[in-house]
Amino acid sequence: STAPCRHGRHGRPVCAPPPAAVAAPEVLRVVIATVPEGRKMAAVAVPAREVGPGGSFRRYLARLGALRTQPGAERSAGGRRTELHLLFDQLISENCGPAPADVCVLLAQACQLVHFDQEHLVSKVCQLIHHLLNRFQVVVDEQNLNFLLSYCISALKQCSSWTHVEILQALAALVYNNGPKCQKYLQDLLGKMGLLVQFSDPAQPDVELRRAAVHSMANLCLSVPGQPCLDEPYRSVCFQTFLSVLQSSKTSNVDDIVFCMLLQNALKGIQSLLNGGKMKIMQTDQLGSLLAVLKKCMFHGLPGLSIEMPAALYPAPLPQYDRRSPVKQEQPEPAAFKPTGVRKQKKGELAEEGKEDLSDPGNESSHGADVLKPSLESSPCADPRACASDVACVPAGKDPLPSHGTGWKRISSSESEYSDAEGGIQSKMRSYQAKVRQGALACFLSAIKSIEKRVLYGYWSAFVPDAPGIGSPQSLSLMTIALKDPSPKTRACSLQVLSAILEGSKQFLSIAEDANDHKRAFTPFSVTIASSIRELHRCLLLALVAESSSQTLTQIIKCLANLVSNAPYSRLNPGLLTRVWNQIKPYICHKDVNVRVSSLTLLGAIVSAQAPLPEVQLLLQQPSSSGLSNSGSATPHRFNFSEQWRKALPLEGESPENPSGCLPPEPCWLIRLCISVIVLPREDSCSDSDANFPSGSVYEPSPVRLESLQVLALLVKGYFSMAQSYLLELGEVACKCMEEMDPSIQLHGAKLLEELGTGVVQQHKPDSAVAPEKRVPVSMVVTFWTMMLNGPLPGALQNSQHATLQTSACDALSSILPEAFSSLQNDQQILCITLLLGLNHSETPLVKAAAVRALGVYILFSCLRQDVMFVADTANAILNSLHDKSPSVRAKAAWSLGNLTDTLIANMETMGQSFQEEFSDLLLLKMLRSATEASKDKDKVKSNAVRALGNLLHFLQPCHVAHPRFREAIEESLQALVSTVQSEATMKVRWNACYALGNPCPRGSVFVQQVVGLMRSLLEMCCGRGEKANLAGLCRAGGARGDAEPRPSVPPTRGRRRSGASCSQPDACWHASAPRGPSMVPAVLAQAEAVGGRGRTETARSPAFSPSEMGERFAAQGGGKTV
């Protein structure tokens, strides 16, 4: 039979032209009989007329059906086999895309016609299964899958060994994405004596057969969303098989490409097991073995490197087992280095996967010994040597970057005598080796997601570079691949893995600290981590200078952003961020959109890293002339922003020298840059390099503008003192963004507005460190918010089609400075209140939560809290949200209810009994019952509900206590507080409940004795001396000191504030008025004095934690903008 015609798996099916004649099966037999032997194939290959895309396959189905219905005596066995061979060849060469159901039925009928004693036909039909399923991406249905799997398993058992490779290839195609449907065949395949286990055994002499078995096993491990994974015993068998394959060494009689394919299949199998979600590597030996083979495969075939790895890696603070085998000079394989006539590719252009290693030699040399001399088209600096000096200080006597491998870079002219065929083979081998390295990196990325970070960081030194010691070589790490691998895709993969390791590493890296004492007898671990951080900066900046591929450049900058976000720069010597800052500036104007976006992301990470840092503040004050303009014409710029900065003129009515009265000596160039990117049209008419972005837009592509808005928001948040001189201009930017049609631009414009408002509120807090004369004037803040309320902000609040925008607009509206709000016009104040009260009835939980939180902020404004009608309206709105089905809405409503009760106490103190009498008793009773009910909710709701209960109990008058309805509600509230203290809630909730119980119990309450007993038991359970002292103070707060003694101040229950929840008394969430009522039992106080230690001489005014410390302690448990 004729050899099958193989087609690429991803080829697009193209229907053949309509044939000229149609031959029925009966006529076809006559044609076969009359045509000479040598022309049988041409005779039967004449296709029939097709009715549609699947017409030819239905014709083949009819022919197969005709063969099944014919009695065996009517034709010879040889003729039947010949016709099947020819029919299968036609099917393999078919181009038209059939329906998946037709493919499944056809394959089932074909297998029914082929018996196991016809081994050539068995091989051919297995080739047909493999080809059709892969070519047309067909997943076999369960009914046909059962038959075809049974056929393949029986064929493996009955047919000769020479057919097993084709059968296993068919098996691999059948089980692809069908693993959950193969449960009843797993014992035959993966059992103790399973076929795949036998064929994949390390003792298997046929490497191609072993590769096919491992491929089938890897496809069987693929997880399907929503379907069950393999059982644990089978997963363990597969994992050990893959691991043994990766641990095996290549023998001299094994083909290089076949061995690479074997490694690829094993790596894909492990990756599938890890991605399935249930494969958790818990044992240290198992994890160490996996990481050892992955590190070995990461460097597989890398030119100039040959490493020896142990069987397993173990957690260690220093690099281990970094032994390099010398590269044998007697096997240089010069033909692999410079094949002639095959490397014709544009510089800097990323080739397809199959051609990525056939790039221009100059491309590779940028990662070799000449790494500091990138070409003028791809280097971001006019003088590469100057760039290198800015990147890092290279130790004396060491090359900035190790050589790429002498064989790859130093090629003699005599190599031109090698043939193109030899060069093509070597290029193909290098491509397969690169795919092994990429597979190992992808597998490592999946392993990182499956391993707990605290376990992963034990292997930090094995994969992250450290500064080399004197006389010792650089350790092999992920940065070795990023700097030396000739494949851009592999370099990008290594950077993705490094980014995944760095992500979430802030806690681990926080121990880093530069050594001040250089005469220590040992190196502390903190110094080792600091050295590693410095080396990461050096290597990543070297890679940034040397890289020419835009895709890899993007990954380098993203990796730098992850590093900057997690490194503890306040504990390191300054200078690291300066190098990053100066090196990234030219890339803001790179021709590739993704590079520009990632560059802005990195700048955002710098300005948000432990802000404010003095080093970053100095960088922000640098003149713009020291930034982009020094890059020269060598940088691949699309345009130059420096001219556009000069076009951003001061606001109307302001002098250029002093636009807002408080400009720093040097304007912030980054703010000018971001404003120009966001609001100014771009000057060039050329389209962007990325075809995904529209080229006809007047402005920069949307991702660039969005990232610029985020950088502005981060800069305002971390360095408001530098951004405050641009307050009105930034307000105009926010207005312009909220007026645009792009919802994302609108949203980030609202977020910028929120950060601006929050910065002003923080600056005007009573405990602010900013001198009053350096704060933004209130008059300017009034002008700012007048511009917002007369602009697009009300429209954004009413945009029901964009709920996220409404939420951000609510948060922005809640960040108004109270003093500025009182100075707004009356109609603008009414507009704010009306919008928030209306949004409190929104059906979207996010919007409703933001609205009720904003009302909780407004209720603390001094100009509003004495308005009884506003207080009543706000109370009704908060109580409505407190019964919402969304937990987030209830949590925000409980926080606002706590603020509302704070306002009641403040009004009671300032306005006296008149306010208490004017406030509705019915509403007060409703608030008491709602707070009692909320105290039984989740912890995020409880913490503020019990706070509100304490305030309400204190607000009650004697007439309320005497009223039967109030008395019942009081009893229920006290019972709720007692239950909360006795519950297993978080410390924050129980702490607040204890302070609520510090309010006086009504006379005659049946809970007085229960509260006394509860305090006694709590005193006995307290372990810490400070806790006992605090509880003793609480007992005194319950009324033991009589009516004349003032109530102690209480630690706040709020955590860290986000986005400006303003409060006129930010550290007074609890009122500090004098309690009135009966005293606690003296025996409790006696016990408190006995067990409280320091409590005998301390009052509750001296808690174990200061108010600010309490906020820090509970910040992680609080919900909402503030707790």
From TrEMBL:
This is HEAT repeat-containing protein 6. InterPro entries: ARM-like, ARM-type_fold, DUF4042, HEAT6. Residues 322-331, 347-358 have a biased composition (Basic and acidic residues). Residues 435-616 form the DUF4042 domain. Transmembrane segments: none annotated. Residues 322-375, 1037-1069, 1090-1123 are annotated as: Disordered. Coiled coil: none annotated.
